[in-house]
Amino acid sequence: MAEKPLDLLRSAHRTALGELELLEKASVALKRNEDAAWIDLDKVFGFFDGELKVHFHHEEAILFPYLARVIGREGPIAAMLDEHQSLWRTLDVLHEKVDELKVAQPDSAGKIALAVQQISSHIVGLLRSHIQKEDNILFPLAEEALDPETLREMVARINAVEAPV
Ligand SMILES: [Fe+2]
User: Fold this and answer.
1) Which of 60, 128, 149, 157 lies 20 to 30 Å (CA to CA) from residue 89?
2) What is the distance in A from the centroid of ligand 1 to the CA of 96?
3) 50 C-alpha vs ligand 1 centroid, how far in Å?
4) How close is the Cα of 122 to the center of ligand 1, in Å?
5) 36 C-alpha vs ligand 1 centroid, how far in Å?
6) How far is the CA of 111 from the centre of ligand 1 (A)?
């Protein structure tokens, strides 16, 4: 397939989808009391705290403002920002539950592990559908609405960002 200006952001989405699979797997394994799940979970949390934060920053600080000049801040952009916020809130809840599970007594661990799995599954659904909307609606819209020069300038700015500021 021909390269598109926002492929950089699409590729971050592919990475995120892989991490979501790992989260799903880890949260099921936790319920089965498999120790290896903790390693996978740490990896996923590391991804959320690192690469995903940078990716959201690329969108919130660079892509969305450029696109907002053309389509306004309401509608799709406001919806995507809401979903970003909702993801962080749900992730906080997951962190709390996971911390609870780490110190849980054997008689309550099963119930907490189930909650961890349910919250994880909510996060997986949320981020998968969010990525689908950006890939199928928002990115093609941006590539259509912004002129090639603006797109080049924008991608150069995205490439220059190493970490959130
Ligand atoms: Fe995204």
Assistant:
1) 157
2) 25
3) 14
4) 17
5) 29
6) 33
7-160: which CATH architecture?
Answer: Up-down Bundle (1.20)
The b-or-e profile of 29-44 (16+ CB within 10 A means b, else e) is bbbeeeeebeebbeeb
Separation between Cα atoms, residue 29 and residue 57, nearest integer Å: 31
- Between CA 23 and CA 86 the distance in angstroms is 18
Q: How far is the CA of 108 from the centre of ligand 1 (A)?
A: 37
The pTM for the full model equals 0.93
Buried b (16+ CB within 10 A) or exposed e, 97-127: bbeebeeeeeeebeebbebbbebbeebbebb
Q: Nearest Cα to 63, choosing from 127, 18, 10, 16?
A: 10
- Encoded tokens for 156: 């150069």
Low-confidence ranges of the chain (pLDDT < 70): 1, 162-165
Distance, in Å, from the CA atom of 146 to the CA atom of 116, rounded to the nearest integer, reads: 41
Q: How many residues does the chain have?
A: 165
From ligand 1's centre to the CA of 95, what distance in Å?
22
